[in-house]
Design brief:
The chain has about 375 residues and is of the alpha/beta class. It folds into two domains: about 1-165 and about 360-380, Rossmann fold, CATH 3.40.50.2000; about 170-360, Glycogen Phosphorylase B (Rossmann fold, 3-Layer(aba) Sandwich). The chain is built from 15 helices and 13 strands. A seven-stranded parallel β-sheet has the order 3-2-1-4-5-6-7, with helices on both faces. The protein has a six-stranded parallel β-sheet with strand order 10-9-8-11-12-13, sandwiched between helices. Helix 7 (about 205-215) crosses helix 13 and helix 11 packs across helix 14 (about 345-360).
């Protein structure tokens, strides 16, 4: 059996794909099936090590970006997209898989277009409360559609759409509490905030957190994942900010460009509150049962307006508070953190709401993997 996975080369697309492939391997082992030949088609591999560890072949198919706002690059990307479609047709024809799974994003368009052209069955998954343009298009001919938010189901044909939740990798399903403080160089027992800006890091969030350090560090310690591309800038700003604080408070800020799986689980285990963007990280936060403050990407960024719907949909469960990027000030951040940290009853309520929302995410990868295999075997037997 041959299976193609495709999606935008960001953590929000890549990690759920890995979670589903892990589930496929688990099914193959449990049912003594021959391993499927799996290929990932995208604009870049995102994590070569993880592809190798899961025995996934990578095919690069560059394409243009389908922006929803004016940009001169839109003109040139028409030609990039056309070239990407040709490359996608060639790549998919050479593999000729039994099924194509699409995670969304403009990088998935060439492979999905090829699947439609060659009449290869398609399954898609939508992580956001408001679907992206590629998934909206693919949902019209996909054999099955899985969504993470119930709110997203209304955008797709009812008879083939299922609310599965978000596929999450086994490695990050559970936090680690013991040993985390020592591993992360934290004070034992001090209330802890974990700041996650997404796989690429977030400059606006980073700057807001740095500006808030003088009002946060007297009470709390902070684990800050800043993103590889922002590490040097943060390092250059830190000395000036920390020099204004007492020495005992300076060590309460711990910065990481990137948190690997173990460090992420330990950081989440140590934290009482998580400050995050409103992408796919929401689902991990929910599975961990952590109260959160969500900061969706600003409305000016047209390609990311779905983050607002994600944030407010999740906040309605009672598991999170939402802060608009345009309103970020040090004292507002501190006020929101204090509201959660200083109210044990509210914190417990948010934890319960997060766990309730996150429950179905634990089984999402397996549900989707089984549906992929069902449709693929059906197609293969024809």
């Amino acid at each position: 059996m041959k299976i193609v996975f495709t999606g935008g080369a960001t953590g929000g697309h890549f990690y759920p794909i890995i979670a589903i492939i892990e589930a496929l391997h688990e099914i193959e082992e449990a049912e003594h099936l021959l391993p499927a030949d799996i290929t990932f088609i995208s604009t870049n591999p995102f994590d070569k090590r993880m592809l190798f560890e899961n025995n996934i072949e990578y095919k690069e198919v560059p394409t243009g970006k389908m922006r929803q706002y004016f940009d001169i690059q839109n003109f040139f990307d028409i030609f990039k997209t056309a070239f990407g479609v040709i490359r996608g047709l060639r790549a998919v024809y050479r593999i000729f898989p039994d099924i194509v799974f699409g995670k969304g994003g403009y990088a998935s368009f060439p492979a999905l277009f090829a699947a439609k052209y060659f009449k290869i069955p398609v399954v898609i998954h939508e992580s956001d409360a408001s679907p992206g343009r590629v998934n909206l298009w693919a949902g019209k001919f996909a054999r099955a559609v899985a969504v993470s938010y119930p709110e997203a189901a209304k955008y797709f044909p009812e008879d083939k759409t299922v609310v599965t939740g978000q596929p999450i990798r086994r490695e990050v399903l559970h936090t680690v509490s013991r040993g985390g403080a020592r591993f992360l160089h934290l004070e034992e027992g001090r209330p802890t905030i974990l700041v996650l800006g997404g796989s690429q890091g977030s400059q606006a969030m980073n700057e807001a957190i740095l500006d808030a350090l003088p009002v946060l560090l007297p009470k709390y310690q902070i684990i800050h994942q800043v993103g590889d591309k922002n590490e040097e800038e943060i390092k250059s700003r830190l000395p000036g900010i920390l020099s204004l604080l007492p020495e005992v408070e300076r060590g309460r800020y711990v910065m990481f460009p990137y948190l690997d799986d173990l460090a992420l689980r330990m950081a989440a285990g140590a934290a009482q509150v998580i400050i995050s963007r409103a992408g796919s990280t929401i689902f991990e936060i929910a599975v961990w049962g952590k109260p959160s403050i969500l900061i969706p990407i600003g409305a000016a960024h047209g390609d990311h307006q779905h983050q607002h719907k994600n944030a407010y949909h999740y906040a309605r469960t009672g598991a999170a508070l939402v802060m608009e990027e345009a309103n970020l000030t040090p004292h507002l951040i501190a006020t929101e953190v204090d509201a959660i940290m200083e109210d044990a009853g509210l914190r417990a309520k948010m934890e319960r709401a997060a766990l309730a929302f996150g429950e179905q995410n634990k089984t999402a990868a397996m549900k989707i993997a089984k549906e992929i295999l069902r449709i693929a075997y059906e197609h293969e037997s024809r």
